[in-house]
Amino acid sequence: MQCKQPQASAETPEAQKAQSAQSAAIYQGENFTLYTLNESSRNGNASILVGASEEMIKETMPDGSYPMATNCFLLVLPPSQENANGTKILYGN
Question: How much is the pTM?
Fold first, then answer.
C-alpha cells in the first residue's frame, strides 16, 4: 500500500497550503483506495473528562491535556463481483 501525501518545507503561503494539505492522505491498495482527512487536531483539557480522578489525570496527563483529533475516512472498493460459487460479493457502487 502506498501513501501519497504533499510535502511542506518553509513558512511561505505555499508551504502553509501544503501543510494544510497534509491533513489529507490517499492510500492506494491493490483492490481499494482509502482517503483520509484529519479535520482537526488539538489538545483537550482534562477538566472536561467525566469521572477522571485527580490521581488518574496526574498519572496519565501530567500537563493536564491530552491529544485529540477528528478524522474522516472514505474507502472506495471495486464494483460487485461474483465468487467461484456464483454468489455476488458487494464491494460498493
Answer: 0.46
